[in-house]
Amino acid sequence: MPSVRVTSEGSLEAALRKFKRECQKSGILSDVKKKAHFDKPSVMKKKKQAAARKRARKKFRPFRSR
What we know:
By secondary structure, the chain is an all-alpha fold. It has helices spanning 12-26, 28-34, 41-64. It has one domain.
């Protein structure tokens, strides 16, 4: 769980920006978005396969230009 201490010299806006950055680094927001709705197992499988194809295409791209 990310936490930020606010000191008397620091501003609240700076602490809020730091807290948002910590949440993003820890992956809380992406996890909440994933769990916002239910995906059927078949849909999850298709998404996983599409991501694998995209990674493979991206990995192959530098070799194609030679």
